[in-house]
UniProtKB/TrEMBL annotation:
InterPro entries: AIG2-like_dom, GGCT-like, GGCT-like_sf. SUPFAM superfamilies: Gamma-glutamyl cyclotransferase-like. This is Gamma-glutamylcyclotransferase. GO terms for molecular function: transferase activity. The keyword Transferase applies. Residues 12-140 form the Gamma-glutamylcyclotransferase AIG2-like domain. It comes from the Bacteria. The keyword Transferase applies. It comes from Streptomyces broussonetiae. CDD domains: GGCT_like. Keywords: Transferase.
Amino acid sequence: MITSDPGTPLPFFVYGTLRPGAANHDLFLRGRTAREEPARLPDAMLYDGPGYPYAVERQGADVRGELVTARPESYGELLAALDRLEEYAPGDPRNLYERVTRLVVRADGSSAPAWVYLAAPRVAARLRATGTPIEDGDWLSGR
């Protein structure tokens, strides 16, 4: 885990409906990104959700997705739009996701800090107990 100022313009690691070819990619990302590249989130496990996945921290597992860099002029608007999509509000105990900073690994092996929406603690606990893991870490592979 790394820490970052919540206002720091970081790229986003997306692993579900925001990935290219998935339902929300064009709705939220088209025209707002400067770069999208394959990446993985180490030490996280993917769980199937109701039409979208959840990532939960877990040693030794990886989640596959994309590292998305917003256009500078679109960053604030995109951050707000993604927070709304994920129904994330800082400090709200009803959150399904928490937006956190994690190191993700690019295809070339280099790492970069990124915003990641992980399952909120109460959701993560339920998923660990009774959730359906996506063993290969790639939500799109079974779609």
